[in-house]
Structure formats: structure tokens, C-alpha cells
Here is the input.
Amino acid sequence: MSRKPIFVVTHPRACSTAFERVFMTQRGTLKCIHEPFGDAFYYGPERLSERYENDEEARIKSGFSQSTFKTIFDRIEREASEGKPIFIKDIIHYLVPPNGKPASIAPSLQRIKRGVGTEEVNGTHHANGVNGAAVNGNGVHKLKPYPYDTEPEPGNPTVVPLEMLSRFQFSFLIRDPHYSIPSYYRCTVPPLDEVTGFYNFDPSEAGYDEVRRVFDYMRKVGLVGPRVATHGLDTDVEGVEKANGVHHANGVNGAHGANGVNGTAREGVEICVVDADDLLDNPAAMIEAYCRSVGIKYTPNMLNWDNEEDHRFAREQFEKWRGFHNDAIESRGLTPRGHERRTKTEEEFDAEWREKFGEKGARIIRETVDRNMPDYLYMKKFAMKV
Here is the structure.
């Protein structure tokens, strides 16, 4: 297995926590880190989200009001230094400014020299705070921290420099918006909103646009590809051209080979995309194919976690995002669907959403699904086949 940390890129409600539980069973040989970047995205002094912008008390109570993108990368590096390979699953829009806003590098990830106009906040240098914002006694910025007063990297849709992104081995997990969007909406309305603390549905948090833009950027710079996992050499995927029998994404020859966190150079990382519905249809074959692609040893017992130790560990890991992971916490393993998946018409989906969420909710869900379907269908073309 590559010693680069594996980073599973996904969007909300993609069955990603159940997927993650598969690898949490391998604690003897694998260190799983659950959704670390949401701490900085929602609560910290470099936050990109406006969800808690006007609720400083909630940010402080979260325990993550001091979390910057640097403190999270520092944590990952510390855990990598312990020797076990790292497995991270996270929502990629936590690294991308919302609503298609242009990205610039997070202040804590810039190499800023000490001197005039710089100050240190909890060991992290900030030029005049973040975007010139005042800092209160708790180190929490009073003004909106984004946009940052920092330089962008050409083409990079994230707030993380390419040099740092290149330290990870990326794979992707997606799900049809017809299922993920209503699942997310349910977490933001009564009665579940009282548990999650998310009291409104924000379409910008759907996450598909960010998955696609990050995916395309990684293909362009060679962090993934050119080969597509399980597709073989004769696959015709739009945007991928064949040269001398090998796929090259947009004509990029070869993969980026930067050194990883606690790791070494790695070239030719496959494009590895898992569709959640394919996973639920055939979990054993999909997990085995995924493991083969990313370099993890596959064993059938990965699909079963019906024991007290696994359940205790999962409850501890998922505690900070209460209400979002109930199904995964209560699950006993990853088994095939008990019934064949039936194809629904758009009218049937609309009727189902109206029954569950009323006319207004159904309308919001429909608009969000339609907006994100093109990005999902684009990513679906690269999904593994078993």
C-alpha cells in the first residue's frame, strides 16, 4: 500500500459513512480520520461557510473555533507519523469556497515570514488577521473571514496549495442526487434539525459542483489518472484520450509525483470513483475492486462490524456530527440490498418528496436535484464497474 494517506472525496449523504465503516474495521493496520475539515469550514477563523457566521456562541461551543486548515493538516501529519497508513473520508466542499466563488490559499497554509503586518494567533501567522479582520480575545475573527486576502493558485478550486494536495492519494464517492439531496434536506428540518443543529437547507452544500471541479483539477495536474479503475484500456470516456494504449486525461502525460505525508513519490494513481448505488447493489465486489485500486488488502470480514468494539469506536468517531450518521452507527455491516432497485419516474420522485416534506420542500429538493444532476452524470462516467 502506498504510504500516502488515502483521501476519499465525497459530498453529503453519499452513504460515505457506511463506506468508511468498512475501513474502520481495520484499526490494527489502518488509521481512519473522520471528516476533519468541517471543523475549519464551519467554525474556525478561516471558515468558508456562513452557516454559523452570526452565531459565535455556537462556534465556540463546538470546540473547533480555533481550528484552521493548518491545524487539521498538522493533526493528519501527527497521526501519519505513528506509522499506520492513513484513511481519510471527507466532504470536499469543506476545502472549496461556496457558490463557485474564486479560491485563494487559506492564510494558515501560506508561508508568511514574520515581520511588519503579521501577527501570530495560536502559533499560526496571519497577515493583519484574516482578510484584515479584527481578532477578539478568543482568537475568533469578528468579521467574515472569506474572501481571504491571499494569492490564488491558477486553476486550483480549493484553499489548499497543490503542493499539499499532492501529499494524498485521492479517490471519489458519489451518489445520485435523487437520493442524497432529500436525505440531506431531512437533516435540516424538524424533527432531525434539533439533533443536527442544521436549521436550514443550504443548496450550496449539495457538493456535486465541488466534487467535479476538484476531480477535473486533479486530472489536469496529474494527481489522478490517466487510467480509470476497472474500465480497462479500451474504455471510451468523454474527455479521456488514448495514446499508445494508455489513457491520458486531457493530454496530461503521467501523474504528479510529489512526496507524501510520511510517504514517498507515487505515479499513475488510478481514477477511482465509487457510485454508492453500485456499492449497495454489490458491496463485496465493489469494496474488493476499490481496495485493489487504492492498494489496501481486501478481506471479506471488512464488511461486518457487528461487535461491541467496532460499534463503540464508530460512536466515538461520529459524535461531533450528531444526527447525520445514525443509520451508519446502527448498522451491523455492509450487505446487498434486500430487494432489487426499482427505477422511478421523475413524477414518482416528486410525489414521494411532497408526501414527506410538503410542497415547499419538494420544490426545493427538485430544484437542487436538477441543478446537480449534470455533475453527478459526469462523474458517473468514471465510476468503477464490477
